[in-house]
Design a protein that fits this description.
Blueprint (H helix, E strand, L loop, with lengths): L1 H29 L3 E9 L4 E10 L8 E12 L9 E16 L7 H16 L15 E9 L2 E5 L7 E5 L3 E6 L5 E4 L2
Parallel strand pairs: 4-5, 4-6
Antiparallel strand pairs: 1-2, 2-3, 3-4, 5-8, 6-7, 8-9
């Protein structure tokens, strides 16, 4: 009865569990606040949608978000969960916006976040090269990755330049995780 109760709880709470995990882990990894507007996951179909992901800009820069992702949809092949590799049929990222800002020392908000992510990766690496935890490794294949409607906004006004905005071309990747990766950029 307890196991069934825990299963029902997890099934009914998966959206809030994933939302909290993204916010907690994202904040730890990036070194700045990460927030998620909403999560909607169907364990039965393997379809999930994450909306309004925001990565705040680090201290010392403007109050704008460094990165926002309007909507991320994921379609997972649920029958592959007990196999290796796990197959993700599609990841679609709509309306990503990068707000890159340069300060007087020529540091960028995106660079500060990147440095923190790299530092986090190093801190989580095994102490001895080649040594892994006793766990097992899972592999993933992404059949299709699509990014649409992206924008990069640059702000170098603190160093005497101007603000600029550029649309990103749509990006399509297929078979990520396999030997051959196909990249399609449509300009």
């Amino acid at each position: 009865i307890i196991i069934a109760g825990v299963g029902v709880y997890l099934y009914n709470s998966i959206d809030s569990i994933v939302k909290n995990a993204i916010e907690r882990s994202g904040t730890e990894i990036t070194g700045t606040k990460v927030s998620v507007g909403s999560v909607d996951i169907s364990l039965r179909s393997g379809h999930g949608t994450i909306r309004d992901v925001r990565v705040k800009t680090p201290d010392g820069f403007s109050g704008n978000d460094a990165l926002t992702l309007g909507e991320i949809t994921i379609d997972l092949d649920v029958s592959s969960l007990n196999r290796d590799p796990i197959v993700i049929q599609e990841i679609r990222v709509n309306a990503p916006v990068v707000n890159a800002e340069v300060d007087e020392l020529l540091k960028t908000n995106v660079g500060v976040i990147r440095s923190h992510v790299q530092g986090y990766q190093v801190s989580k690496a095994p102490a001895e090269p080649g040594k892994q935890d006793a766990g097992y490794e899972k592999h993933f294949v992404i059949r299709s990755f699509v990014m649409n409607e992206g924008v990069v906004r640059g702000d170098a006004t603190r160093v005497g330049s101007e603000k600029r905005e550029h649309e990103l071309p749509p990006v399509e990747l297929s078979n990520v995780g396999r030997r051959a990766i196909t990249l399609v950029l449509r300009v």
